Sequence to fold (196 residues):
Amino acid sequence: MRIARLEEYTRVEGPGRRTAVWFQGCSIVCPQCCNPEMHDPAAGIEMTPEDLADAIVHARAEGLTLLGGEPLDQSDELRQLLLHLRNLHYQDIIMFTGYTWEQVNAERERASVAELCDLVIAGPFETAGAPGRRRWIGSDNQTLHCITGRYLELVADWPQFVKEVEIVIGDNEMLINGTPLAADDELAGLFMQKGE
Ligand code: SF4
Fold:
């Protein structure tokens, strides 16, 4: 499977201290996507579902967030990853997908991945509804789907009007995690100048 990034710990991609995996490759290509470098399915790094599951479990975070790129463009491999994690009793899995909930359920492969998550946040990023009012979610059109009961309370009382980012500084790069920023935001401008 092609992965753009693995962040062992982040506090801005869902509740608690989470591991986040950004998938490489996206066929949806929303206008103003904040991760255009993750559209090319040939870029990124190759990992087996087994190795990625081991890395996620090793991080020992409070949960996992899958995002991208488009996770469901690699449904087969993602399903294998989630089966490994569930066999290892891993809990708290949230997936962001740019497909609408109807599109997820229209294809058996996509639906079978969704069934292995605890919460799915579905729908493309839409600038008209961005940055939106909900914490961790890019635009207001995106819909929430509890697959298990784990996030029922959170979904019933979703935090509003909180937007946050986390800056990760590496040897040769600066990355920003968190909710997409408005195009005219100063920090977004800085991010783009850095050739993110
Ligand atoms: S689905 Fe996600 S990664 Fe793909 S274009 Fe839309 S916002 Fe970007």
